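Please fill in the sequence for the structure shown.

STRUCTURE ENCODING:
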């Protein structure tokens, strides 16, 4: 199979539209998925657009929200959408970005949190019933583990378990 100029142009067009290498191979006919991938690399084509976005949108670093401060109420956020255009080769790509901004923060201390005192255990002193939450820098002399009593078959005490395990809804909002 020869790569004619016409087939190369069709490959570039399909690649920029976001089709997979298998789909492109099927549309071109007489060529394998691996041959398409090899040709794309030899042509140094940019990352292709993905479903629901553009190649640049998938490569741009998304702003991450600041970690939630424990013991305080949730933040107030606002969402804005911007549409920008940029040239990609001979085509112009339209990108829509959704940004979430923190507009204010309601600081409402939670009063029922008790921070336990650490028992300062070293690794050799840990058992199945002690909290294994690390405290400090492992490369320093004062490094230790919490060591408080943990529930059966749990690695952390109840306080550290609240820090370690977040409800799935909060994890989705943090992204």
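FILLED IN BY: designer on duty
SEQUENCE:
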């Amino acid at each position: 199979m020869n790569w004619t100029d016409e087939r190369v142009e069709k490959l570039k067009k399909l690649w920029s539209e976001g089709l997979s290498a298998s789909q492109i191979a099927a549309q071109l006919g007489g060529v394998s998925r691996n041959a398409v991938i090899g040709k794309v690399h030899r042509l140094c084509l940019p990352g292709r657009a993905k479903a629901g976005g553009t190649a640049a949108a998938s490569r741009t670093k998304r702003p991450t929200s600041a970690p939630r401060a424990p013991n305080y109420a949730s933040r107030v956020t606002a969402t804005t959408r911007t549409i920008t255009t940029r040239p990609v080769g001979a085509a112009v790509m339209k990108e829509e970005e959704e940004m979430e901004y923190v507009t204010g923060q309601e600081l409402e201390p939670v009063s029922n949190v008790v921070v336990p005192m650490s028992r300062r255990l070293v690794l050799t002193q840990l058992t199945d019933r002690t909290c294994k939450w690390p405290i400090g820098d492992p490369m320093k002399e004062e490094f230790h583990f919490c060591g408080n009593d943990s529930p059966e078959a749990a690695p952390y005490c109840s306080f550290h378990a609240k820090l370690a395990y977040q409800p799935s809804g909060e994890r989705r909002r943090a992204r």
